[in-house]
Write a sequence for this structure.
């Protein structure tokens, strides 16, 4: 990672950029190497943090404006010091000396600072891991059945609310954590995959858990069923079926002998 403060998302110029959480526009203007940049100040559970959206081709908000999670802030671009169109996104702590923050008094060129461990300690002190932070703080509530499901396998614990059923336009999440808190990194990759009909899985490969990680499952507008498989170090840990349909659609399936057999075999649903 070196001293790169955030994450870069490759995207076409003009792609809409959305606020990650409710807040107030701290600044919105052209900022040298970062190009067109929007900084949002947030308050959550009594804590202040800042999100930065850089290299934009256009800015649609102004300083002091109140924004809600999901509001469009601007459009992605390649302004400032870039080699390709992308969005630079970072999250900063309140104690950062300025916003947007970047390490100062570091020896070497910008490229050397970004690609080596120079000034990494400053990045750790003043910024947060954007992907992990958003995974564990998103205010979007999980759609869930009344009962959650837990499986312990090896040194990992899996908790999810799928209950075996999703609608064709559904989004659900699974939480994965280590049973014994012996470090945040895994000794091997944890992979999550599907069989047959597609389900978008993000992330599909996990290398580090932190306190816990969330995996998002999103159906693709189709009705059928799929098998989710989780493997760790080449060994299958968890395998479970998910039925993708509406309640009305499931009732129609029960009148089909072949589909009825599937419902009874994988989901313990009686067609009588």
């Amino acid at each position: 990672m070196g001293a790169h403060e955030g994450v870069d998302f490759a995207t076409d110029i003009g792609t809409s950029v959305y606020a990650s959480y409710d807040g107030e526009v701290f600044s919105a203007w052209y900022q040298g190497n970062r190009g067109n940049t929007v900084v949002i100040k947030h308050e959550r559970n009594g804590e202040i943090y800042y999100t930065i959206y850089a290299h934009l081709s256009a800015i649609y908000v102004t300083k002091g404006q109140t924004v809600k999670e999901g509001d469009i802030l601007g459009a992605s671009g390649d302004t400032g010091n870039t080699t390709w169109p992308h969005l630079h996104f970072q999250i900063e702590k309140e104690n950062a000396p300025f916003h947007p923050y970047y390490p100062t008094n570091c020896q070497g060129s910008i490229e050397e600072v970004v690609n080596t461990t120079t000034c990494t300690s400053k990045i750790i002190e003043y910024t947060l891991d954007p992907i992990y932070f958003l995974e564990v703080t998103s205010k979007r509530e999980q759609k869930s059945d009344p009962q959650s499901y837990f499986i312990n396998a090896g040194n990992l614990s899996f908790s999810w609310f799928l209950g075996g059923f999703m609608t064709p336009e559904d989004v659900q999440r699974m939480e994965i954590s280590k049973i014994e808190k012996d470090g945040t990194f895994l000794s091997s990759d944890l992979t999550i995959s599907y069989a047959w009909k597609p389900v978008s899985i993000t992330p599909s490969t996990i290398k580090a858990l932190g306190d816990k990680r969330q995996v998002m499952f999103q159906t693709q507008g189709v009705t059928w069923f799929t098998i989710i498989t989780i493997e760790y170090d080449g060994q299958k840990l968890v395998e479970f079926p998910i039925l993708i349909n509406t309640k009305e659609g499931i009732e129609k399936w029960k009148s089909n002998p072949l589909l009825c057999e599937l419902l009874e075999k994988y989901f313990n649903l009686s067609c009588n």
